[in-house]
């Protein structure tokens, strides 16, 4: 695995994503759901909302970094608020 | 309705999943690892944190390449989609000439990218190329190696030549699936040619056109080989698109860290746009399904 140049932060990053995927897979199997239509006027399932959250969070982090808005961990707080909004309204 | 859901069928996807893991997921994870480190070769890495992302976000070079890339994709979509529809509308509907057109038009699609680049590189040369020589003989000052506009025109015309047939073939397939009854009804109503196109042909082609736009967008957004062979990204940096710049940075300069950060941002943009297209496409399908 040395050729992949692993570091602890990147490993943690992928572990969190893997854990999220696993959790949502288990949720989808244990508690099946019907898609719902939110503010974007598109049908979404929990998995879709997770995807929108993760993709949006990546852009939020880049914007935070690019616009130099402060220490990076604070961007994660914004992402959490964004995630809550996505799961509530999208 | 008690429909049995058989989730075991998902196991059939496992071989593909393994293949994708090796060809895409693991390399992508490696790129993420590179993006937060610096290396001078010899497989030795030093922690750099988010510095490369910060550098790249402030890099004029990356933004310029992104703007060029977006302009390029917008231009080729604006030309290829209407042109492809126009060609499809005027293709013979059946018989020998229909097959003849289909085969002839698929030919450019079968040519490998670097060969297309080489063809146009020679075709445009003023000394031995048919296009370049003819333009020169007509008194038009054309030189794609030195003039920015000429380089752009050559690269765009080359892409249009290579890929318009794909749009035309997809649009043609969409047109063929419209039952004759629609045209008969339009005839009874004395609908104009434009009305037939606007209210029958275009809505029925919407699905395949979305696929055509998505394919052409993705492909043009990732274009590398053809402009690299023809112009090498020049004159200056005039036709240096994202992929060309990325390869220069990663392989030419061996700046693995910045290149990794760059490619992750590139990947995110592609993912966002693909998601938008995919969502629009599936919603179109659902809307058609309801009607």
Automatic annotation (TrEMBL), chain A:
The chain crosses the membrane at residues 6-29, 50-67, 73-89. It comes from the Bacteria. Keywords: Membrane, Transmembrane, Transmembrane helix. The keyword Transmembrane helix applies. This is Small integral membrane protein. The lineage of its organism: Bacteria, Pseudomonadati, Pseudomonadota, Alphaproteobacteria, Rhodobacterales.
From TrEMBL, chain B:
InterPro entries: MetI-like (IPR000515), MetI-like_sf (IPR035906), Sugar_ABC_transporter (IPR052730). The keyword Transmembrane helix applies. The lineage of its organism: Bacteria, Pseudomonadati, Pseudomonadota, Alphaproteobacteria, Rhodobacterales. Its main location: membrane. Belongs to the binding-protein-dependent transport system permease family. The keyword Transmembrane helix applies. It is found in: Cell membrane. CDD domains: TM_PBP2. GO terms for biological process: transmembrane transport. It comes from Pseudooceanicola spongiae. It is a multi-pass membrane protein. The chain crosses the membrane at residues 70-89, 96-123, 151-175, 196-218, 259-278. Keywords: Membrane, Transmembrane, Transmembrane helix, Transport. Residues 66-277 form the ABC transmembrane type-1 domain. SUPFAM superfamilies: MetI-like. This is ABC transporter permease subunit. Pfam families: BPD_transp_1.
